[in-house]
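Lab notebook, design round three. We kept the backbone fixed and only want residue identities now. Task for the bench partner: fill in a sequence for the structure below.
Input structure tokens:
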């Protein structure tokens, strides 16, 4: 790998850091596309196997929960064993799990393939990876880098969902499973070649670093102990709980609700899967813009204020959603504009606050635990919305519930003090 990378570095010097960002962006984009795949499979699986929406939602919720629960241990393992080996292993799991799913015939097959194997792989190629890359490779413009990497999840939907919906309608859901399996496999050699372990590996320092000091050697601590140790220290700090529960609501209102149920919701109003997927893709385009700008703003504006506006506007958009379907041509575009711009715009300021409170080294692991809250919220919303749809016959009550939770989260984040700690930020060693 070094024989290929070092000549490139010699020509690009410190700008090679953006090659790192591009490589990780593609890996995160592929993982996001794979995570979004079950949303276009809900109706086909209902029709082929007779599985009800609660059953499929349960599998998706397991996937989402594992995606979050593995995060802190993955971030700790990256400090112990390195980023590249874990990302390579995760892409292999994603490719294998999606491929195996083409032979599933009973619910536990889907639980194993999409719930456990894909959930475990996606837990590594996640926002904790983005936070680790931003902390390890950037001294300045860390918020911008985090914004770009986080936007990959929206871009994954933008790139894959319309195509997947078309393939489901014309070639069946198995064609989609084969597609995403192949994409994950193609990313393996790209990551192997273009993702060095740390700046010092290829003779660089962090982007914007003023001195010539290099990061210390890899941790020798057990990753499990490191992750649990970080949690024990974090739970004693009030800001951790405010970040955790606000991110719980973030997960409820994005991946868990809109990400999992929007296409099925559109079907209730006579909009075909391709139309619903196209609307999600439009939200993805808007979020690519909104989250990148959010990263830029996170380097310049109080992160608490950003989060207040993001959660508040998202809540209003979700409360408006049931009415959007009745406003002819203009309703859904208005919802998409407000909701899409801040789909995952909350991530850069949340990571900024985690860095302020816990320090650059410990922040990725602690942020991993915050992401656990996000994914537990998403899993809860996926299962709850499926149950409420079956019981009430519509998604209206679910939309109002998610919108109200976002309004509460908007008020909650104003209590976070991390943005004011500055140089007095409390360090949290993982050692």
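Proposed sequence:
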């Amino acid at each position: 790998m070094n024989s290929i990378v070092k000549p490139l570095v010699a020509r690009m010097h410190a700008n090679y850091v953006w090659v790192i960002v591009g490589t990780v962006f593609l890996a995160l984009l592929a993982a996001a596309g794979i995570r979004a795949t079950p949303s276009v499979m809900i109706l086909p699986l209902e029709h082929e196997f007779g599985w009800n929406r609660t059953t499929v939602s349960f599998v998706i919720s397991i996937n989402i929960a594992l995606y979050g629960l593995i995060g802190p241990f993955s971030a700790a393992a990256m400090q112990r064993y390195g980023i590249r080996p874990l990302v390579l292993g995760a892409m292999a799991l994603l490719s294998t799990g999606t491929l195996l799913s083409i032979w599933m015939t009973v619910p536990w097959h889907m639980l194993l393939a999409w719930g456990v194997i894909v959930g475990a792989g996606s837990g590594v190629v996640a926002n904790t990876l983005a936070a680790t890359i931003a902390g390890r490779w950037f001294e300045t413009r860390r918020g911008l880098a985090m914004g770009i990497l986080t936007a990959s999840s929206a871009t994954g939907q933008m790139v894959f969902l319309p195509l997947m919906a078309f393939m489901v309608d014309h070639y069946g859901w198995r064609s989609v499973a084969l597609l995403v399996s192949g994409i994950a496999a193609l990313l393996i050699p790209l990551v192997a070649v273009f993702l060095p372990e740390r700046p010092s590996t290829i003779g660089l320092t962090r982007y914007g670093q003023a001195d010539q000091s290099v990061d210390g050697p890899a941790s020798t601590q057990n990753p499990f102990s490191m992750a649990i140790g970080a949690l024990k220290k974090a739970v004693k700090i009030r800001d951790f709980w405010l970040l955790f529960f606000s991110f719980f609501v973030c997960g409820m209102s994005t991946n868990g609700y809109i990400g999992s149920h929007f296409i099925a919701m559109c079907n209730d109003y006579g909009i075909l899967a391709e139309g619903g997927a196209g609307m999600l893709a439009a939200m993805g385009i808007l979020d690519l813009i909104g989250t990148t700008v959010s990263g830029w703003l996170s380097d310049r504006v109080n992160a608490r204020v950003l989060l207040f506006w993001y959660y508040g506007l998202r809540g209003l958009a979700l409360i408006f959603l049931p009415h959007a379907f009745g406003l002819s041509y203009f309703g859904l575009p208005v919802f998409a504009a407000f909701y899409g711009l801040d789909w995952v715009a909350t991530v850069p300021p949340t990571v900024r606050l985690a860095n302020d409170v816990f320090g650059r080294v410990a922040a990725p692991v602690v942020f991993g635990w915050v992401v656990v809250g996000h994914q537990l919220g998403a899993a809860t919303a996926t299962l709850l919305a499926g149950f409420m749809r079956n019981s009430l016959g519509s998604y209206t009550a679910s939309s109002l519930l998610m919108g109200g939770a976002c309004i509460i989260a908007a008020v909650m984040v104003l209590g976070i003090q991390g943005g004011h700690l500055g140089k007095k930020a409390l360090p949290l060693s993982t050692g």
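Keep this in mind before ordering anything: The chain has one domain: 2-200+224-418.
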